[in-house]
Amino acid sequence: xxxxxxxIDWAALEHAYGPADDVPGLLRAAGSADPRARxxxxxxxxxxxxxxxxxxxxxxxxxxxxxxxxxxxxxxxRALLELLHGAADGTGPAYRQxxxxxxxxxxxxxxxxxxxDRRVRRAMVWTVAACQEAxxxxxxxxxxxxxxxxxxxxxxxxxxxxGLLDVSPDTRNARNRALxxxxxxxxxxxxxxxLLRTAxxxxxxxxxxxxxxxxxxxxxxxxxxxxxxxxxxxADRLMDDPDAALRAVARGLPLAWELTEVWRDRERDVxxxxxxxxRDAEDLCRVARVGAALEGGAPxxxxxxxxxxxxxxxxxxxxxxxVRLRVPDAVGLVVRLMDELPEETAALRLTPFxxxxxxxxxxVEVFGAAAEPVARRVAARPRTEWLDALARFPxxxxxxxxxxxxxxxxxxxxxxxxxxxxxxxxxxxxAYMPDPVTCPRPSHWRGxxxxxxxxxxxxxxxxxxxxAVRQPSGWRENSARPRRI
Length: 485
What we know:
mainly alpha; 2 strands; elongated
């Protein structure tokens, strides 16, 4: 079965880990009577000869022996065929040599196309397709197998392989259109997928409808398919046409998030589906990020299920999405949250943008003066996580100066926005807070640590109100600048 294996100078060949002098021993172990030894050897051969999709000179030399093991060995034929498929589909400097070696081994393996194990038959079809143009002489075999095969999944694989290999577009399209009425949903899906692969844009509405009907009957995930690069998964092809992709989303294909990344002018249309597919607070923050870039102000009834959720994080994230979308009564939703879930609303830091923040500060950033009800709630019950919301409402902040001082340093920005208002007398030697406007730093200021003593002499033992210090010429008052949430 492995005759001639010692006639090859394996040490002169390479695999993923260097010289391939260990390959003969692994091939012999793959033909061992011990199942454990076979399994371990096959795993090592996969790792060495097809390492993460890369193939090597030793891969081509090992192909004939792997084919013999698949045909006559005691091991798992399916696993050996999958190794041959990985070799034919591999990349790297030796890929042409390896593909020719696999194509040369295929005629001896044709009997496996009718093996009693459906998994072996499928692996055989994949291997034939992976050899691409080198497999053209085997097209009659594939056509004959399609007529004889009774397993729906194997028939679907045969349809796809024939579509990729058939050099006659008329023959291919006629066969696929006839199969659109096949009784097996996987076969219909394979046929329409191949028709869409070569169809012009915009995609024909009838084909799109057939594809969606086939998907509903036989949902599948083509993320990790076994086909060559010329294959286009159904979802990928539908994404080439925004109207077809929107129809697909409405029919249940999970393409909503991909649509927002590929077709930015269709984001508003897909928002309801984004919200419907949201599973947690993080997904709803993504909805908020999409909505923030749109012209808002319209109602969003599709947020209602999340706004009524029993999970606090989901309710807060849904309210945040309503704020970013600027839906009517979003401010009222925030106030309700502050009343019903004050601890959770303060604790949950939403991060859909460059910096973290809470839904309270987001409401003030988005709605400005219209968010005064939110700011009033903050003033009534100040919390360190909400204080930034008062920076835009100095009149409300002025009434809570004592609380703001107590919450330093979190309230420093709000106090600065007040313009250095006079603070109550403290127990220390200075009766007044230094005013950042009327008490500027010395001209030779060089940093906090280097001038600690100087600052103590200038401010720490002040005997007169700091407002008496003359402002330097050209000094401009600090203005409250909103923080980006």
